[in-house]
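Narrative summary of target 7.
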Amino acid sequence: MKHTLVARVLDEPGVLNRVASLFRRRAFNIDSLTVGHSEASGVSRMTIVVDTRRTPAALVAENLRKLVPVLDVEDVTHRPTVSRDLALVRVRCAPGERSQMADLVAIFRGKIVDVAPESVIVEVTGDEGKVDGLVDLLRERGILEMVRTGKVALVRGSKADVKTRAADMEERTNGGGAQPNAGKGETDNGADLLR
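Modeled conformation, tokenized:
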């Protein structure tokens, strides 16, 4: 089964490397990992989809929490979320086939974002199933190149939840309280994670 974890991390050099190194050391299988700025200054948001057939999601989250730059980890798998995946796909397309291609892409609410003499670039956003469906149809036409972002997700809920979380992040990033991971034995090389 795949689980979706959302981690809020300090926006500083080396954080992604530390998270990836943790996954490598522990042999956790990452299905997708996306990172971007969040609503809080100095805090980035990671959405991590992990395969939990071999390793429980709780263990993955627990290990992530031990990393000093990680402020918060939440398993949103069983919570109501809005999730999206973005794909850009370069597909073979002769000039006479462009209207057919545009019609096909429109069924998936995608769009053609670039046109070349013998190809087009298609953009599609949606849940993984929707993106996979269009990609499968485009394969028949000849995919030349493709990139996907991986899953991004936000938990559905009230603005009060967001304000509370933002206040917590503000306090943690501005040193207004104890470091959330203080006293957990974190070392610079992360060796304590193997305990």
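The longest helix spans residues 159-173.
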